[in-house]
Design brief:
With 97 residues, the chain is of the alpha+beta class. The chain has two helices and four strands, in the order αβαβββ. It has one domain. Helix content is 33%, strand content 24%. It has a four-stranded antiparallel β-sheet with strand order 1-4-2-3. 16% of the residues are buried.
Length: 97
Amino acid sequence: MSFEVKKTIEFLDAYPKASICATGLTPPGKLAVRTRKYQIGINKNLAYLSERHHVYGFKVFEDANPDLIGAWPFGRSGKWEVFRPNINYDAFLLNLK
């Protein structure tokens, strides 16, 4: 388990009503390297995380252009859903069950 995952779990144990949201600094697309790294880490640890945590992924809505709607990272239109492997997400949310 990575250092980041351990620290995230420690934080949520200390603050059980908190949620942690993670996303990269760049908009979704080819340059969203940090977001991709978060997703890989969640995928590797999903079975363990899911035992005690809710894990969600955020999918940004695209319009017909297909330009994305809203300012990054806040104000984007999209939908939170239960995290599923092999789905590309634009942000992640983790909290205790």
